[in-house]
Structures are given as structure tokens and as C-alpha cells.
């Protein structure tokens, strides 16, 4: 590829699932997020969710993050097209790192990460969220889960198998295991909302 094409290539990524799930997620977030403060989004991916939510909540500041340089470039490219004053530049954040580049947040969002990462990433997410959030602060998780006494949807079973084939450390997590991890870190019981395409919105609040 010529150097000029590389220089002018649009770094914005497109995540088709974002177009389908952002409005259902937004409906839940309207009941969950505080009226003011800082919302940290972990594993922001393409950045499309960050732009959409920042536009919907002008009184909140949104801090997108991701460990992947290509994702960071995409997030900032989407931000440039939106010119939203409450959307901060993306920062590199790995949930498994011993320290995060953020010291406080009033709410934390993590969408579609837990099943596409090692279990250690979930452990780091919940541990650091407990350190950053104030009492009552929400940790919002979205994605597919396994649940005790609830049959796994056929589409989720196929998805889970495909994830484990890609990486044995990936796969749908037991919601009960995530809830136990959260309880041990100082969160209350999860508030669970069924979502389209066999996903769940899961909200933990810091005690």
C-alpha cells in the first residue's frame, strides 16, 4: 500500500453489534448512571459506544479506554467526528495491570469484554472497580453469560464453542462466578436485565 494511502486511511473501526445493542443498553444506562461525574468505559473497542453514550448524557464526562493501539486510534477518530466536549481522549488500560491510569470514577462500563478475555481480566476489572468507585457507584457489564438452572441458548452455545476454539482462555462465564467475585470485592447483588440476542445487562453497586 502506498505511504499516502496509509497516512490517510480512516482508523475508525466498525462493530456491527454496536448498531444493534446501543439503544437497548442506553435504555438501561438511563436507569443506572449518576446525573453527573466521570464514567470510565473499559475495553471501549471501536469507540462507537463511547460516542453514542457521551452524546446521550451531556452532563457526564466519558473516559474511553482499551489496551489495543488500533482500538485507541479508532476511539479517538470517532471522537473527532463527534466533537463532544464531554468525551475525553482514549487512554491505554489493561484490566490485568497492577495499576490503572485512572484514580477515580463515578461509574464504570464494560461491554462485551468478559467472554473475550482471560478470567484474570475479569478479576482485574472487578478488583480495580472496587478501588475506584464510591459507595453506590455502578459497575455495568454487558454480554452473554451462562446461568445456573437456565438452559444455554443454542446461539450462545455455538458462540461459546467458537470462542474457546480461538483461545482456550476465552468463553462465556458463569454469572454466579462473576457475582461471587464482585461480592468478595465489596459489591452488592447483581441487578440483571435480559437483553436482545441472549445477552444480559448486569449491574453491581459498590457497598
Topology:
Elements: H1 3-8, H2 16-32, E1 37-42, H3 48-56, E2 60-66, H4 69-82, E3 91-92, E4 107-111, H5 119-132, E5 138-143, E6 145-146, H6 154-166, E7 173-174, H7 175-185, E8 191-195, E9 199-205
Parallel strand pairs: 1-2, 1-4, 2-3, 4-5, 6-7
Antiparallel strand pairs: 5-9, 8-9
Question: How would you describe this structure to a colleague?
Answer:
With 207 residues, the chain is α/β, with parallel strands linked by helices. The chain has a single domain, classed as Rossmann fold. It has seven helices and nine strands; from the N terminus they run H-H-E-H-E-H-E-E-H-E-E-H-E-H-E-E. It has a seven-stranded mixed beta sheet, with helices on both faces. Strands 6-7 form a two-stranded parallel ribbon. Helix 5 packs parallel to helix 7.
Could you list some keywords that capture this structure?
207 residues, alpha/beta, Rossmann fold, seven-stranded mixed β-sheet, two-stranded parallel sheet, 7 helices, 41% helix, 20% strand, globular
Count the helices. How many?
Answer: 7
Mean pLDDT: 95
Low-pLDDT residue spans: 1-7
| Percent helix range | 40-55%
- What does the largest sheet look like? 7 strands, mixed
Strand order of the largest sheet: 3-2-1-4-5-9-8
Q: For the record, what is the CATH homologous superfamily label?
A: Vaccinia Virus protein VP39
The name of the CATH topology is Rossmann fold
Overall 3D shape: globular
Sequence of secondary-structure elements: HHEHEHEEHEEHEHEE
CATH architectural group: 3-Layer(aba) Sandwich
| Overall number of structural domains | 1
Give the tally of β-strands.
9
Terminus-to-terminus distance: 54 Å
Structural class comes to alpha/beta
Range of strand content: 15-25%
Organism: Bosea lupini
Biased composition (Basic and acidic residues): 1-12
Pfam families: DUF938
Region (Disordered): 1-20
